[in-house]
Amino acid sequence: MITAxxxxxxxxxxxxxxxxxxxxxxxGLRLLAARSVATSLNVVxxxxxxxxxxxxxxxxxEMFISRKDLDxxxxxxxxxxIAGFAVALLLGRRVSAASRLLLAAVQEVGRGxxxxxxxAVLPAELAALSAELETAHGQxxxxxxxxxxxxxxxxxxxxxxxxxxxTPLAGLRAMAEALEDEVVTDWPTISRYHAQIRAETGRLTxxxxxxxxxxxIHAGALRLSRQVVGVGDLIGEALTGAEPLARAxxxxxxxxxxxxxxxxxxxxxxxxxxxxxxxxxxxxxxxADGAVEVLADHEPGIATVSVSxxxxxxxxxxxxxVFDVGFRGETxxxxxxxxxxxxxxxxxxxxxxxxxxxxxxxxxxxxCRFVIRLPLAAGAVTRHEAGHREGATRTAPxxxxxxxRDWAGPA
Length: 411
Known about the structure:
Elements: H1 4-31, H2 37-63, H3 67-110, H4 124-180, H5 187-218, E1 227-229, H6 231-249, E2 252-257, E3 264-266, H7 268-284, E4 291-299, E5 302-308, H8 344-354, E6 358-364, E7 367-375, H9 380-389, H10 398-407
Parallel strand pairs: 2-4
Antiparallel strand pairs: 1-3, 4-5, 5-7, 6-7
């Protein structure tokens, strides 16, 4: 019969052996920290078997069991130890093989290939690591593609702007030299040169302003001073600003806003510039006697503004590049009088996206339609719905309504 003293002897003996085995195992694992996982698993198995054998031997000697019984116990422990070693070895080899597969996949990325996850079944931790590596590689590839596209866009922009700057500068230099050398002396020609110099200077100023604005957008330095404003006001101001160009090109300009259109919270100057860029772009690409129409409406939580023209449509292969820096949809880069550096649509996209909005383009009818989507001002939807429940019909502010009425007919 086992007494309390025997239990105490067994307890402190086993505890001491376990402590010594754990210390030896810890030292061994630290010394072999740079080796494979299989080696560490073998160390763990060896420490476990050794501690078990030592405990059995010491306890057998303390309790004075028979030699025959001790041999049986040792045989059982040895067999279980061998089984433990075998399992540890197999597990270690499996983990090592999975690690080598994962390492080979990562090395393939370093040699310029894409990351392809191993097809073999991996342990859960390595499988999770492989999934994260695949996700990270996909994100890096997308970022690399965006960077390459941006760099190509920058190179194109530098080339295009250099070309667009050289042409007016050459003309300015020629006219200045003609005036300085008194090659032209008649007053009508001198007056014409002065007017042309002023026009070219204004065009250069516009190009530089566009470049400065675009650089601030790309640098994330665009500061927005938001205020609640009616979409009708923005449309009216854009139509007013574009009216001289529309009249000069004999393009009909129309605009309207849906009744009860809730307001938006935007930087009025920035969004007004984006909308004006779209309207001016539409007018420039619309032939004489064509029409440009600006419509405002709303969806749940969103205000929409569409700018439709009569340009004949944009080729499908060009649609994804319409908002790219410097893109004009034509091969010839000869600047047209009054045009900038082809940055207007890029600036418009940057401004709208800075307001957490969206801008898109598609072909519609005999032209194309640009659509701006902006979030409504906070609480605007609630107030709008409350107004309908009370039977009230909201309209654009008086100034906007008056402007839009003026633009509802032919320009």
